[in-house]
Amino acid sequence: MKNFIAPALFVLAGFAAATPAVAQADFGQCLASLRGQAAAKGISGQAFDTATRGVTPDLTILDLMNNQPEFKTPIWDYLSALVDEERVQDGRAAMRQWGQALAAAEARFGVDRHAIAGVWGVESNFGKDIGGRPLIQSLSTLVCYAPRRNEYFKGELMATLKIVQDGDINPANLRGSWAGAFGHTQFMPSTFQRLAVDGDGDGHRDIMTSVPDAVHSTANFLKKAGWVNGLPWGYEVRLPSGFSASLAGRKNKKPLATWAAMGVQRIDGRPLSGNYAAGIIIPAGINGPAFLVTKNFDAVYSYNAAESYGLAIALLGDRLKGQPGIQTAWPTDDPPLSRAQRRELQQLLTARGYDVGEPDGKIGAKTREAIKDVERRIGLEPRGRPGGKVLEALRG
Fold this sequence. Notes:
Radius of gyration: 23 Å
Number of helices: 18
Strand content: 5-15%
Order of helices and strands: HHHHHHHHEHHEHHEEHEEEHHHHH
Largest sheet: 5 strands, antiparallel
CATH class of the domain at 2-66 and 131-182: Mainly Alpha
CATH topology of the domain at 2-66 and 131-182: Helicase, Ruva Protein, domain 3
Structural class: alpha+beta
Distance between the termini: 57 Å
Strand order of the largest sheet: 4-6-7-3-5
Shape: globular
């Protein structure tokens, strides 16, 4: 790691942006040191040189990595933006368009096509938000300058170089997030190497431009993560009075009969039935919605290791099946906003003279600062949260 210490400290000290020539020199030395390590991984010198020729560091990535947002998203805001009517309608259209590919992936791997589509919708809005940062540039910047996890990013860079060398994906198309996730369902390069498959029969694994490759690869991921064909991921439940929060937890699985004996019911009042074990999660606490979750939820959870994320995929999949959304009210008096409502909020802020940029429904720093000002004016704590009270105030 000592090859990367000086550049990393250089960036952290805040001087790299002011002296790009020195930063570029450090970057060149770093890339040169990686060439031999790439050879040891089976990447030819020609492939390495071709992939890295003309690459310069993107130091803005360090800001994205280091500047953690102060704003913490409540679970109801997170799910409201990811599982709204707009995304459900877009998902149904995508499933009609790519129904054959999804059905083939389901048959091949035994994974529910709606769960596959749920991943697709949450990860890239059905291919609309894939990300535009060149992977080689992003990952080499992180290897050479990141203040932490350099070895992890080095592994992802080597995996990316292998993708280029193998010819699965046109290098010009290898674009994604600042951390290196790419494609319709946002695989990391090492995940691609392990689990991507050819879904359209052309001999390549191209999750950037081939929807069949992307959905088959996602189904393969979920299958390898433990998905059980025919088992539900879970469903919303009603907890009995006095239920102890200490019993909740994704890993605290019990037979359904045990939960039923405690008085747990489906949200519609039907009794629990089935011969499998499940846990109960309460993402907003004991006074919010509760969900019974099985091994299939664990498989979805493994995609990004977050219960909120797993719930978004699972609930979106249910909505795509035609099932209703969450029935229990969230424990808040300030309701969350859909993306359409967030765009309306931004439009109203713009009309009142705030600079929030394009009203795209994405709540960035400018929008949060404007919301804080509105919150102060209406007597709320200035948190920058896009909630119903702020929207109603702006409408008024």
